[in-house]
Specification:
With 122 residues, the protein is α+β, with helices and mostly antiparallel strands. Helix content is 12%, strand content 14%. It has a domain of 81 residues. It contains 2 helices and 4 strands, in the order ββαββα. A 4-stranded antiparallel β-sheet has the order 2-1-3-4. GO terms for molecular function: zinc ion binding. Keywords: Coiled coil, Metal-binding, Zinc, Zinc-finger.
């Protein structure tokens, strides 16, 4: 499973070491040699698990689909993005982390407010 491209639809066989990789970055991470450039590429569809060859010199719009199952494998890559989330329990069991918009929030007083302090002293 590729950590660089989340929606990889095919695996690519590298012509240099003849191993299968999801992307060129996976090859660079695991191998010590550079990826050999070639015009004919061998793909393995992850949907139907069948292999096929594509000539990249004559690549056109109809070549974006698996010839066996018509899976559209040439789609825009979705890369993982870093994000910060708060993990909690299931909200159906414990909803304390959810804010109820119907309840009015109490007015927050600051120590530096002169008007609020004078009004409270009476």
């Amino acid at each position: 499973m590729c950590k660089h491209v989340l929606n990889a639809q095919v695996a690519i066989r590298s012509p240099c070491c003849r191993q299968w990789f999801d992307c060129a970055q996976c090859h660079a991470d695991t191998q010590t040699h550079d990826l050999k450039q070639t015009t004919e590429m061998i793909f393995a569809c992850k949907k139907c698990k069948k292999c096929f060859r594509k000539d990249m010199a004559e690549f056109d719009e109809s070549d974006e689909y698996c010839p066996h199952c018509d899976n559209h494998f040439l789609i825009e890559a979705v890369e993982p993005k870093a994000r910060l989330e708060v993990e909690g329990e299931d909200v159906r069991k414990d909803a304390r982390m959810l804010k109820d918009e119907r309840i009015k929030a109490k007015q927050q007083y600051s120590v530096w407010e002169d008007e609020g302090e004078a009004a409270r002293m009476g």
